[in-house]
């Protein structure tokens, strides 16, 4: 199957097509665990590869609390801050280990538990993340189109295998980008956070 620039851009856009959970969507009232898992499943289901996959389970939430990457609930209820943290953890765990997430979040979790902490800290972090994510998406579509042009230049003489080779090269480049970004992430954690 041949993929053209428009189809590749459509694939990239489909990854961003799901609507991020906006701050206004996050309830201001505290939720019980079942309500949290239902909320996350409903809002993030478009990010699942397979319909049977779970976004978040009770066991995951309990383990995140035990691992120290999620503050304990108050009276078995989870606040807006908990929901934001769970969304961020969900995204981080796509690439990072729980240990790396712990290292990354520890200074902020400590600061947010202090009495003089800005009560809007996690809202501000989340809003900045959503804004930067949108900027990255805008740049990503352009970059993928440019890479496809270069791939076409290099595969023009492969005859009937050209389409399969183009797809292989697209996947190899995407995997390489993921590897480089993962390694860079790990280097930042290893070098700039207290282990």
Q: What's the gist of this structure?
A:
Pfam families: DUF1836. The protein has helices at 5-17, 33-44, 58-66, 80-92, 98-112, 121-155, 162-192, and strands at residues 31-32, 77-78. It is mainly alpha-helical and 195 residues long.
List keywords for this structure.
7 helices; DUF1836; 66% helix; mainly alpha; single chain; 195 residues; two-stranded antiparallel sheet; DUF1836 domain-containing protein
Account of the 3D structure:
This is DUF1836 domain-containing protein. This protein has 195 residues and is mainly alpha-helical. 66% of the residues lie in helices and 2% in strands. It has one domain (5-192). Helix 1 runs antiparallel to helix 6 and helix 6 packs antiparallel against helix 7. The mean pLDDT is 88.
How is the secondary structure organized here?
Blueprint: H1 5-17, E1 31-32, H2 33-44, H3 58-66, E2 77-78, H4 80-92, H5 98-112, H6 121-155, H7 162-192
Antiparallel strand pairs: 1-2
